[in-house]
Protein: NADPH-dependent glutamate synthase
Amino acid sequence: MREQDPQVRARNFEEVPYGYTPEEAVEEAKRCLKCKKPSCVQGCPVNIDIPGFVGQIALGNFWEAMKVMKTTNTLPAICGRVCPQESQCEGSCVLAKKMEPVAIGNLERYIADWEAQQNECVMCEMKPRTGKKVAVVGAGPAGLTVASDCAKMGHSVAMFEALHKPGGVLVYGIPEFRLPKAIVEREVNFVRSMGVDLQLNYVVGKLKTLDDLLQEFDAVFVGTGAGKPSFMGIPGENCLGVYSANEYLTRSNLMKAYLFPRYDTPIVRGKRVATIGGGNVAMDSARTALRLGAEKSILIYRRSREEMPARTAEVHHAEQEGIEFNLLTNPVRYIADEKGWVKAVECLRMELGEPDASGRRRPVPVKGSEFQIPVDTVVVAIGNSPNPLIAQTTPGLETAKHGNVVADPKTGRTSKQGVFAGGDIVTGAATVILAMGAGRLAANSIDEYVRTGQW
Ligand SMILES: Cc1cc2nc3c(=O)[nH]c(=O)nc-3n(C[C@H](O)[C@H](O)[C@H](O)COP(=O)(O)OP(=O)(O)OC[C@H]3O[C@@H](n4cnc5c(N)ncnc54)[C@H](O)[C@@H]3O)c2cc1C
Ligand code: SF4
Structure:
């Protein structure tokens, strides 16, 4: 897919890939073999009918393709952009064994963007009203999937979102150059058009508890994500200029600091910015720093490139844009100047030892290898855990070690009758499509519960 030139895009927030032309989409779709037992569908956590929608694109029937898509996925423009297709549908495509797999993600994105350019929109089939009421807490990918699936099943759905914009990480975390916010808004509006009532600025656990919601609703789904940042606990983390990735990205994306002076949100535009971590959040932070004006954006990651959890395409994009990778390097302390502002990060060189519980080779410090990197801003992107508010205000809701809500992976049922949960709040920080997959399972199980009343 054609993309913006790396030198140019490294200084703007516009989307990196341009998307297919209609001809390119049809040509790519024609490569699909329409396998009888499509392994790509098995590889997709929400089991999109991939040969179905790709086959319609190959025929040039874009409306039909969108109809097929919307039976199983109401967020295709989002999934087409951010899903890790390489390890899911495309990784399972039979063509991947001998050549390039069908570019399923690009086609998904194409068909959703094509629909956005039309004056009409494909609507989903809605079942008759059941009179049952479902509350959804959190308007991220998990909550949006539960809301749209339950609405399709005929239930009345109310969503409660703490922030002033719906979308979860899609609006506050993932930057504009990877996922334009107008696209998220459009797909969220589609979910609303199915009759879902969305209440913004509504913090459940403060305005109402889950028990309050259970008085009003037949079932409650908790999809509150994992938005609490983790720190390493090393000296100097409280220095001025050291951000969590959550704060840095939220200021830039949701609070629109990148659109200064149109939006007057303060953010530090460092000249030498170090980002700590090797996942998608770290790539997004390092690339954002560059776009906010950094002369040098430096990534510091304790393992090697092979163990990086970020998507290959994002690592590649970051490298093209000139992010400096310091691999096998671990920060041990931050050093401040006389005003308390971070001026350097002290690091240790690492080498790889035996595999650990994650299956990746464990980074082991090289003794006496301390060295310093001069910086004026640091972004810590080493992981997130659930916000404890819901657990703290809900007696009887079982949680695990890091505060994750315990839920049955097949049904989303929690320890509390009528309460279901899914997405990052259950699994810890994962992916959009896994959150959507959990939402789909929970919606089916909510449907069964509200109809039968059996727990
Ligand atoms: C910077 C970044 C980049 C990422 N990149 C990718 C990527 O490229 N591909 C990918 O697949 N995944 C990516 N992820 C991970 C992915 O975004 C998450 O796994 C996914 O968003 C989880 O969905 P969710 O619905 O469980 O939670 P969230 O998206 O976190 O949504 C939870 C929502 O609940 C709301 N909420 C929280 N508490 C309350 C409360 N008490 N009351 C009401 N509302 C509440 C929050 O405000 C939020 O809107 C990325 C994550 C980050 C942070
Ligand atoms: S596995 Fe690949 S070739 Fe087969 S149906 Fe799926 S996308 Fe098409």
About this structure: The first helix runs from residue 6 to 9. The pocket of iron/sulfur cluster (ligand 2) is lined by residues 32-35, 38-40, 50-51, 93-95, 102, 104 (CB under 6 Å).
